Hints:
Largest sheet: none
Number of strands: 0
Shape: flat
Number of helices: 2
Structural class: mainly alpha
Strand content: under 5%
Low-confidence stretches: none
Oligomer: single chain
Amino acid sequence: xxxxxxxxxxxxxxxxxxxxxxxxxxxxxxxxxxxxxxxxxxxxxxxxxxxxxxxxxxxxxxxxxxxxxxxxxxxxxxxxxxxxxx
Length: 86
């Protein structure tokens, strides 16, 4: 009885990994290569950035105005909140 149980367990253990390998999907073709990036998709270079340009200054000014408005609204909200600090 004990030998039959051990034999059954050994065969079952051998069949489970074999079945998992049999159901596995095939690997991708190893001869395929990664496609190149389309033309025009390049990394920017330092020469392409101009931090003192008119467009950059306009953007910074718009962000500063927006930040000032947000700070003003935050202060108004803080004043309107009634928080008990007992």
